[in-house]
Write a structure and sequence with these properties.
The longest helix is centred in the middle third of the chain and has 23 residues, at about 160-185. By secondary structure, this protein is an alpha+beta fold. It has 11 helices and 9 strands. Strands 1, 2, 3, 4, 5, 6 and 8 form a 7-stranded antiparallel beta sheet that branches. It has a two-stranded antiparallel sheet with strand order 7-9.
Length: about 290
């Protein structure tokens, strides 16, 4: 079997500047990154356009002034839904910035709306990077710590023990081949029995552990993939709704319509006719 790992390894060697920064710019809509996870915290501050992030199967639409936080070991993907877009990105291991904060193992909320202090800090970090004045890297590190403290004071969603975090990491690694298989073969008939055999498990045991690791049942997960692919086709391709349903793996057109309406609050035909855009915050698949 080919390597189907979703794990993305980041190595940051610079102790003086233990983070990665980027200004991400795009002129067209579509997938930016496919499903993956890593052991660093990743943050995106949106300054232009709209970007849809799916984090551990929960979907958020980020607009200018919003901050998206991807905690360590969270499976995530991103797509631009309104172009052009611009976003400031930070990626770091909390322990490299503050061992004291790292010991708390905070899990931050996934999206923060319109916080002026966050906007100020991101603006300063990237002005320092652009200007490259004396000791700008040390200034950026200090601002990143200030950002981390601000999030720790106001936007903590909970805490995770190191043991829990390691368990979650191991579970994600275990299901990487299955998740990647579903992402690549969503249009085919996929059974829980087949997926369970890939990991040498019984169907019941596989279903239980998969839900614990990913946050959805295997059927919900594959339907979530199919619905996202269908939404994209309905808005970008000249296909009938029936053709779209078949193309993404739904053999029952009525079942496809029910799931689509439940997820997006409108019918596939309404999206096909341009009456609705279907990228909404806090989507869940059933």
């Amino acid at each position: 079997m080919p390597n189907l790992e979703l794990y993305e390894k980041h190595i940051i060697h610079d102790e003086e500047y233990p983070m990665r920064t980027a200004r991400n710019v795009g002129g067209s809509c579509g997938t930016m990154v496919t499903d993956h996870w890593h052991e660093h915290i990743e943050m995106h501050f949106i300054t232009e356009g709209k970007v849809e992030f799916t984090i551990d199967r929960q979907t958020y639409t980020a607009e200018p002034g919003d901050l998206v936080v991807i905690n360590r070991n969270e499976l995530h993907t991103a797509s631009c839904v309104e172009a052009p877009y611009t976003a400031y990105m930070l990626l770091f291991d909390v322990q490299d910035l503050s061992r004291e904060i790292a010991q708390k193992e905070y899990r931050f909320i996934s999206i923060v709306r319109k916080d002026e202090e966050i906007a100020r800090l991101f603006g300063r970090i990237f002005r320092e990077i652009d200007d490259r004045g004396a000791w700008y890297r040390q200034v950026c590190r200090g601002l990143a710590i200030e950002l981390l403290v601000h999030l720790s004071r106001h936007y903590v969603d909970g805490t995770v023990t190191l043991t829990d975090a390691d368990k979650h990491k191991m579970a994600l690694k275990r299901f990487n081949p299955v998740v990647q298989y579903m992402e690549k073969h969503f249009a085919e008939k996929i059974t829980v029995a087949k997926l369970a055999r890939m990991l040498c498990m019984s169907e019941d045991h596989f279903g239980h552990l998969f839900r614990e690791a990913v946050g959805q049942s295997p059927l919900q997960f594959i339907n979530d993939i199919r619905l996202r692919k269908a939404a994209n086709l309905l808005e970008t391709e000249e296909c009938s709704v029936t053709e779209v349903a078949a193309a993404v793996g739904f053999s029952d057109y009525n079942h496809f319509g029910r799931l689509f309406r439940k997820r997006y609050g409108c019918t596939p035909n309404q999206v096909r006719r341009g009456l609705f855009h279907v990228f909404e915050e806090n989507e869940t698949a059933e």
